[in-house]
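Dear colleagues,

As part of the handover before I leave the project, I'm documenting each prediction I ran so the next person doesn't have to rerun anything. This entry is a single chain, and its sequence is reproduced below.
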Amino acid sequence: MFSDVSFVVGDNDRIALTGKNGAGKSTLLKIIAGLEHCDSGSVSIPNGVTIGYLPQQMELADATTVADEVRKAYSDLDDIRAALDDVQRQMAERTDYESDDYAALLEKFDFLSNRLNIEGVANIDAEIESTLTGLGFKAIDLRRPTAEFSGGWRMRIELAKILLRRPDILLLDEPTNHLDIESIQWLERFIQTKGKAVLLVSHDRAFLDNVTSRTIEISCGKIYDYKVNYSKFLVLRKERVEQQMRAYENQQKMIADTREFIERFRYKATKSVQVQSRIKQLEKIVPIEVDEVDNSRLRLKFPPAERSGDFPLIVEGLGKRYGDHQVFSGAEFTIRRGEKVAFVGRNGEGKSTLVKCIMNEIPYDGTLRIGHNVKIGYFAQNQAQLLDGELTVFETIDNVATGDMRTKVRDILGAFMFGGEAVDKKVKVLSGGEKTRLAMIRLLLEPVNFLILDEPTNHLDIPSKDVLKEAVADFNGTVIIVSHDRYFLDGLVDKVYEFGDGHVREHLGGIYDFLRSKDMQSLRDIERVKEPASLTGSKQQAPSADKPATQPAAEQKNRKLTYAEQKERAKMISKAEKAVKKEEERIAELEEKVKELETRIAAGDASPDTLAAYDKATKDMENAMSLWELAQQQLEELT
């Protein structure tokens, strides 16, 4: 991966660690964190320096609530308290007030007391709630078990623990992958105001530019250290690659000339000394390596598609409800041909749910009309599951490429990190991220006039994002993008639809115009006391989570059913409808029970029995929602 890597991390360095996939970024972080051993060299960390490491995947205890899990960040304070109690006990038992030993005890007492004061013991609960709220949790979520949360939310729990420990060095491996825009902004402010030394890996260019001032690149087994942010690093890197390329070309010309001399005079006795000298010269040459080619300059163009009507999408009074829980309601907007818009908002507010309504994957209330001659290209989070596992990477793309694109399949695959032998791998052996990238390439080659992209950049590195962004910018059709990546959206969209509090609001302008307006609203509302988040609000992500939509099998679609099969199918549909109705009724009952318990708690009844009943009711409702979603999916498969 790399060798002879040497660099120093200063007290307040904010470093972006970059390089292509497989270069060793995550491995280097693990070595610094002490989780992996290096084959040579050493990592020197002064005594007392603490390190906080956030991996891409982690395990949390499932037997605790969110608040209790995060409270583990303060476990070292228990040791301090125990030591302080011991000192106080010794002082109470001693009477030699003038002795050196007693003076040492007083000094130790002052030191431990100051440590507790510095850590802000009295404000632990406030710090925990503030940090978790900043990362997107609602107040009601703090009492929920960690087992109820998806992988992305569990990553936020671990990030909260690390941030609260205030380590001297923060090692963050892709911290923004599961954060929405507001949470990313909160993390930026935290690092800027409270972070010390930071070394992070991220594919979010805006995040890197906002929090880092130094960039270390791993390339060709070496590192290049730049005292600039990521955007400035790209300019300097381009100059370096150009210099390397010139040196490489000069060396290749010299090698070719030398070999030509050797072949020409190999059998001439009068030139034997010179020939041998040239042969030895070739053997001593150290090949000049050129850093990997920046494929982000490759231009992709969507194949031409038929022109759609003037209004590809018209939404009137659109709403989506899960049981008694209203995800959003009264959505009204029209998207014109050629517009590129963004769906943004906190996780669980209904962005992907509305996309599924557009794709007719789930039922909805209100009116949703698809315009004349609209052909939709949809990238969903389950897109990778639709790929044929028995095909190779090359075959998957070659089968859908048309025209001139068929001659560029290998270049296109290389731009998305499928270079060399990787093109001959079967799809079934690829990782989830690789399958996602492959599905994205397929979409780029399909003739469509309306693109819907649901979190398309989560598994793409920065060069691949640039390829996609350029292709979407040049696309002359209509585009809806669900994303939290500000850099990707910047300059790409001219209208933003904000999802929140059960409503969909339209904002004219680009993503940064929207963010500036949100900051202004936050300043006006800063004095306003927020009402406690309702339980139904905290549960949005349960029914509207981005789970793969199960499609009916192709053979069921393409042949007529016999009478017996139709009869059996009707029975199955009836059974599925009853199951959906049963769970909806169960959810409604539990929501009433939860509301009643919340009213009692708000009125001051916080007895153990009431809190236990509340916890049980919330968990029962979570289970009922999961059962409803399963029943709904089964019904959709049949209808």
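The mean pLDDT is 79. Residues 563-602 form the longest helix (40 residues).

All the best with the project,
I.
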